[in-house]
């Protein structure tokens, strides 16, 4: 049998890397059966780890033992470009070191970092990479409304920067899937198809799992919408990657 490698289309690495930010530990944990149903592995970026209760730590450990990744999202969820202005040592002392030691005490050693508020610059990035993080995740938004007016709209499949090319890149953008982005299921299906056809990993992220329209300052994604994404990824036989797996996959 002749093995034809050249020019053959390959989809073996095609996948999706989904992450969740902030401190919705109980709400994330409630999604566990859904993740199990689709064999999905995701990353939870935890902020303010000083307030982790024993119960939350136990839940995060269980999620980690399922194959999910526990990443770090800052000690105080501050504005890093302002904190770094006082120097890299001060920035680490306020935003990085205390939180990491709370995480370590709880038994976690995060290797991925999500920028609080999507705020960062080259100095911040170099401090974080020198601190041992393997991948830094920023925010990409496909729709932005200002004073209720839609200023721009890009279909996710036309946003090459939300796809991981397995080139060892350690500074990446993930597409926000929260309710207020107005993303639709057909757009997400097309975005997943693009990952499949280009053999890349689509990077997505959200905040609180919500079961109805956001109320009283809630910010998060619609759970049935996430389930559609997981179901479609499963149907297309896409791989689920945690964030630290991306730069490790050759
Ligand atoms: Zn955040």
TrEMBL record:
Keyword Metal-binding: yes
Alphabetical list of Gene3D superfamilies matching this protein: Glycoside hydrolase/deacetylase
GO molecular function, one term: hydrolase activity, acting on carbon-nitrogen (but not peptide) bonds
Single Gene Ontology BP annotation: carbohydrate metabolic process
Coiled coil: none
Keywords: Hydrolase, Metal-binding
Domain NodB homology as annotated: residue spans: 14-250
Keyword Hydrolase among UniProt keywords: yes
GO cellular component, as recorded: membrane
UniProt cross-references to InterPro entries, sorted A to Z: Glyco_hydro/deAcase_b/a-brl, NODB_dom, Polysacc_deacetylase_ArnD
SUPFAM superfamilies named among the record's database cross-references: Glycoside hydrolase/deacetylase
Pfam families assigned to the protein according to its UniProt record, in alphabetical order: Polysacc_deac_1
PANTHER family hit by this protein: CHITIN DEACETYLASE 1-RELATED, GLYCOSYL TRANSFERASE-RELATED
Identification of the protein by name: Polysaccharide deacetylase
Taxonomic source organism: Dyadobacter psychrophilus
């Amino acid at each position: 049998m002749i093995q034809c490698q050249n020019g053959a289309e390959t989809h073996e690495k095609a996948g999706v890397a989904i992450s969740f930010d902030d401190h919705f530990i109980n709400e994330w944990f409630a999604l566990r059966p859904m993740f199990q149903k689709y064999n999905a592995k995701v990353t939870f970026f935890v902020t303010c780890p000083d307030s982790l209760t024993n119960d939350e730590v136990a839940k995060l450990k269980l999620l980690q033992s399922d194959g999910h990744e526990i990443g770090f999202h800052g000690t105080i969820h501050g504005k890093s470009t302002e904190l770094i202005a006082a120097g890299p040592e001060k920035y680490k002392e306020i935003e990085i070191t205390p939180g990491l030691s709370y995480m370590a005490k709880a038994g976690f050693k995060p290797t991925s970092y999500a920028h609080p508020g999507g705020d960062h610059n080259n100095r911040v990035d170099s401090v974080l990479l020198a601190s041992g993080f393997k991948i830094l995740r920023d925010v990409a938004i496909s729709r932005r409304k200002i004073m209720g007016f839609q200023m721009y709209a890009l279909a996710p499949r036309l946003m090459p920067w939300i796809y991981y090319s397995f080139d060892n890149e350690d500074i990446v953008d993930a597409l926000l899937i929260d309710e207020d982005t107005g993303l639709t299921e057909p757009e997400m299906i097309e975005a997943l198809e693009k990952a499949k056809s280009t053999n890349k990993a689509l990077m997505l992220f959200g905040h609180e799992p919500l079961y109805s329209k956001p109320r009283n300052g809630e910010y998060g994604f619609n759970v049935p919408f996430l389930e559609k994404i997981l179901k479609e990824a499963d149907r297309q036989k896409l791989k689920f990657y945690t964030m630290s797996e991306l730069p490790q996959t050759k």
